[in-house]
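Worked example 3 (structure in, sequence out).
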């Protein structure tokens, strides 16, 4: 371009404006031109996505919100396909509006929920998922679920692990109070890793001894409520045959 610089400087303002306009049109045609080959299409899409990603980063830096990329379909038949694909009524405008609201709320789900009850359900679900994920990680088993009622046998004895750092009452999650602060504290502990499963030695896994007066009459027995299992999600049945193991070993649980 250096050899044409002097020629460009000699042009009048009107001629320069015309030249710029023509170049802009040529560039638009080039950018929007049809890419026939597969490698050409892949490179074109990759370049555009990178530009979108940078714009989303800029949006986060400037406005403090989480950016997102939402694909726009020029073919309106997508409106007929998505209800079949997701198994629900699909409204593109409504979904787009929800995504925008979620991004503006910095992807804070609790901030999007209106009622305390809805927030409590969300936190309990999050706690359940995190506990199961940690149990799956330490055991190396997929689809393993936490057992609350028979925790001593089905978790400690069976897998040789113990849950430490539990900050709430150790009961079925559905029986926990809906108070948000304790639920948030437990969810945060699971997220931070202060509440986790630890591997036990063989000696540590040994069942605790029965009471010395086991089997002897000790007067009327006070009734206690029996916890459901796994926030109603595990389907665990009552099958603890050792009456000496009624209280789970949970470090950090009073």
């Amino acid at each position: 371009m250096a050899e044409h610089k002097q020629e460009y400087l000699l042009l009048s303002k009107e001629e320069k404006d015309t030249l710029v306009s023509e170049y802009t049109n040529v560039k638009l045609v080039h950018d929007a031109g049809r890419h026939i080959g597969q490698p050409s299409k892949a490179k074109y899409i990759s370049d555009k996505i990178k530009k979108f990603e940078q714009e989303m980063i800029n949006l986060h830096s400037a406005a403090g919100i989480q950016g997102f990329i939402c694909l726009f379909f020029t073919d309106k038949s997508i409106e007929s396909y998505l209800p079949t694909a997701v198994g629900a009524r699909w409204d593109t405008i409504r979904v787009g509006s929800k995504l925008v609201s979620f991004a503006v709320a910095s992807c804070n789900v609790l901030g999007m929920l209106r009622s305390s009850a809805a927030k409590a359900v969300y936190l309990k679900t999050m706690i359940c998922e995190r506990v199961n994920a940690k149990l799956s990680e330490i055991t190396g088993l997929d689809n393993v679920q936490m057992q609350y009622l028979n925790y001593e046998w089905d978790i400690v004895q069976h897998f040789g692990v113990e849950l430490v750092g539990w900050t709430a009452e150790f009961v079925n999650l559905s029986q926990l109070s809906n108070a948000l602060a304790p639920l948030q504290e437990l969810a945060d502990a699971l997220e931070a890793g202060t509440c986790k499963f630890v591997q036990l030695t063989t000696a540590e896994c040994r069942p605790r001894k029965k009471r010395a007066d086991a089997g002897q009459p000790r007067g009327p027995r006070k009734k206690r409520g029996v916890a459901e299992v796994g926030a109603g999600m595990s389907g665990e049945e009552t099958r603890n045959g050792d009456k000496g193991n009624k209280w789970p070993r949970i470090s950090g649980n009073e």
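Notes: The radius of gyration is 31 Å. The beta strands are 161-164, 196-199.
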